[in-house]
């Protein structure tokens, strides 16, 4: 694949999608943002609030007038085929994003995440412009197998007690013989379809199994975007509920580092692996209660925290082994957690 000339970003009005759109809009390619704008239908009322899609839609429209905005639903296969044609890269981020929502409405979760992703892949396969595809998968594809790895408990966190996983979870961890949430299952279905299309050389494609992504222009909520949610709650002095004991650990990846990983694949997808675990890796981790300490050090504030039962599908430790991305994409995260949090806090206060 040569130079990228036209990029389609599904879910482009979302947090990650808006950063992808901005990245390419500032570098020359023509950008198309596809979104159903379901959360941005009342911009006047929501732009000053905490609707991530509304805020980012407004942000992109004001700053990048050359971006094409298309309102469409990825469940409409014919519509998606007509939109994908003519693009040479697709970053597929549109989806249902919350485990809790998938438990309450698994059918919609399936239709958006599994069927919607299949529609994007089929559209790319049929397109004469032959686009490469990046798909935002999730660490939830590994299901409860993650919790079968032994962990040890320290004062403020859990950590892997098996030296095999000192660098984190590799792409080879089994996805079988374990409990999955509907969300994890629907994303895994799209992930597996993508791998099949790539293996049969139908399209160049890669699934990025993402851990915790954070950064400016993210209004986190309890069900999704927990680092932003904790930071905003701290700044606004709003009480928080921690499910479990707060020692669960995640690796954190600043959003611009993620976008650069996407671009590293799309710019040269030939003979690259089709699956990457994507996060900050073992050197950029935090537990929930450790994050409160980091936020207090930066803001001088600490909000009230209550505790409740563990939530279904939660993992005591999830850390991405990013070795494959480092080796095959010549990529490594550049923003440490302290710097990323500082930039998030500055954005939120200044916005």
TrEMBL record:
Parts forming coiled coils: none
A Pfam family annotated for this UniProt entry: Epimerase
Record-stated family: Belongs to the NAD(P)-dependent epimerase/dehydratase family.
Membrane-spanning parts: none
InterPro entries in alphabetical order: Epimerase_deHydtase, NAD(P)-bd_dom_sf
Domain NAD-dependent epimerase/dehydratase: start-end pairs: 7-279
Name under which the protein is recorded: Nucleoside-diphosphate-sugar epimerase
């Amino acid at each position: 694949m040569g130079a990228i000339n036209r990029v389609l970003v599904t879910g482009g009005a979302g947090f990650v999608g808006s950063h992808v759109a901005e990245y390419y809009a500032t570098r020359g390619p023509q950008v198309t943002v596809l979104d159903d704008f379901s959360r941005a239908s009342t911009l006047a009322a929501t732009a000053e609030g905490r609707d991530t899609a509304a805020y980012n839609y407004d942000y992109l429209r004001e700053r990048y007038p050359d971006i094409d905005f298309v309102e469409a639903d990825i469940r409409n296969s014919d519509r998606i085929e007509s939109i994908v044609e003519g693009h040479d890269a697709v970053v597929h981020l549109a989806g249902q994003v919350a485990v809790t929502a998938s438990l309450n409405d698994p059918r919609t979760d399936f239709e958006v995440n599994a069927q919607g992703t299949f529609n994007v892949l089929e559209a790319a396969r049929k397109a004469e412009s032959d686009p490469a595809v990046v798909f935002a998968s999730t660490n939830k594809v590994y299901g409860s197998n993650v919790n079968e790895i032994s962990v040890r408990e320290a004062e403020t966190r859990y950590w892997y007690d098996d030296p095999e996983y000192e660098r984190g979870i590799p792409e080879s961890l089994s996805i079988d013989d374990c409990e999955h949430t509907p969300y994890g299952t629907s994303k895994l279905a799209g992930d597996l379809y993508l791998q099949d299309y790539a293996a049969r050389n139908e399209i160049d494609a890669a699934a990025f199994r993402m851990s915790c992504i954070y950064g400016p222009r993210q209004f986190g909520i309890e069900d999704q975007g927990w680092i932003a949610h904790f930071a905003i709650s701290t700044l606004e002095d709003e009480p928080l509920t921690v499910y479990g004991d707060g020692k669960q650990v995640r690796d954190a990846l600043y959003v611009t580092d993620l976008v650069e990983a996407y671009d590293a694949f799309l710019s040269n997808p030939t003979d690259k692996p089709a699956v990457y675990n994507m996060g900050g890796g073992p050197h950029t981790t935090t537990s929930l209660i450790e994050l409160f300490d980091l936020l207090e050090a930066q803001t001088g504030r600490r909000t009230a925290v209550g505790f409740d039962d563990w939530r279904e599908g939660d993992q005591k430790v999830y850390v991405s082994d990013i070795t494959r991305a480092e080796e095959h994409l010549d990529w490594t995260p550049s923003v440490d957690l302290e710097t990323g949090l500082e930039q998030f806090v500055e954005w939120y206060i200044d916005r």
